[in-house]
Amino acid sequence: MRWILAALAVLCLGGVTTAILLVPSDVDHAQATPREVVLPLSDPAGQGALDGLRFDTVMGLQGKPPEFKDYVQFSDGLFMSRECEDRCNYPPSAYLTREVDGGTAFIVEAYCPTKSTTMVWRGAVRGDSVQGTVTWTSKRWYWDTEQVLEFRGNLSESPAEILTAG
Question: Which domain range does residue 121 map to?
């Protein structure tokens, strides 16, 4: 629908209006995770089933060897990747969970406050290990860039830090 509106704007109002209409909106972010995935997830804000856990992880492009070491953690209903916070300014973000066979699945939608980028983390904690994927999307007015990363790791000996939402 937005593309139809953008095309009409070009015909009627010129290119400047097109750029304004194509800026990502809250509706775009809300569509990052399908509704049927979000509905069964029910952790109240400020507390979560995985709180207090920290995992030493490795991450890289899906299907490729890991490129860097990281740690991810859960605290006070928030999820954080140290590497993504340091490199890309992603603040701790709320996480949602549901019980799955042999563990706890989680999903996190993290939004960069300084760029039009989103990271959607989907993973599972089973015993002392975590693994999953991260879909990184960068929205531009001329095209979107998307990369899928894989991460995996084990329970850390270091404790989880107290987090605050960005």
Answer: 24-155
pTM of the model: 0.70
Specify if 7 maps to a domain. Answer: no
Instruction: Write the DSSP assignment of 75-87 as a string of letters.
Output: ETTEEEEHHHHHH
18-48 residues labelled b (16+ CB within 10 A) or e (exposed): beebbebeeebeeeebeeeeeeeeebeeeeb
Q: Are 6 and 23 in contact (CB under 8 A)?
A: no
1 is a domain residue: no
82: how many CB neighbours lie within 10 A of its CB?
15
Residue-wise pLDDT tens for the chain (166 aa)?
444 444 444 444 444 433 333 444 343 444 444 445 544 554 555 578 899 999 999 999 999 999 999 999 998 888 989 888 777 777 888 899 999 999 999 999 988 877 888 889 999 999 999 999 999 898 877 888 899 999 999 999 988 877 665 5
Pairing of strands 78-81, 68-75: antiparallel
Instruction: Give the chain's domain count.
Output: 1
Question: Could you tell me if residue 165 is inside a domain?
Answer: no
